[in-house]
Design goal:
8% strand; 2 strands; mainly alpha; 154 residues
Length: 154
């Protein structure tokens, strides 16, 4: 390093120190020096999250109590039983189809909720390399493993 470089570097350090001093001296509210302020704000946000979670749990609890009472009376079906609608779909795999093509088609048909998860499963477990061309009957109550075994005939 020559003289000019050293002087420039020193001048930069001096200007940075001056800037920090000016900010701390004339704008003290911009700099939080008291750790208690941070701790207090975190406690408030924690209690807010806990209250929100508590309210959600209370709501779910009351819904479950209502559902249990209805099941005991035999007057209503469970929400889960009513919500279970099984979708059937005939998947046709053509030559050149990829796991992404199959996953997106099954997602559009309502067989899987998330096509990306099925695609990742097929790739990670190396089912993409042994896909079989053909027609396959699939239902929405199948999991990723069952679908993979059917479309690979393994």
């Amino acid at each position: 390093m020559d003289k000019r470089t050293t002087r420039s570097f020193s001048a930069g350090i001096i200007f940075a120190i001056l800037a920090i001093f000016i900010i701390m001296e004339f704008f003290p509210s911009a700099v939080k020096t008291d750790g208690a302020e941070v701790k207090n704000s975190m406690k408030e946000s924690d209690s807010w999250v806990k209250k929100d979670t508590y309210d959600t749990l209370l709501k779910e609890n009351s819904e479950l109590k209502t559902e249990l009472k209805a099941l005991k009376d035999g007057s209503k079906e469970s929400k889960n039983d009513a919500a279970k609608v099984i979708t059937k779909y005939r998947l046709v795999i053509h030559s050149g189809m990829t796991t992404a093509d199959i996953s997106s088609e099954l997602e559009k048909a309502g067989i899987v909720k998330n096509g990306d998860e099925l695609n990742d499963y097929l790739i990670v477990h190396k089912y993409g390399q042994i896909l079989q061309i053909g027609e396959y009957d699939l239902t929405s109550d199948m999991d990723d493993e069952q679908i993979a075994k059917i479309i690979t005939k393994s």
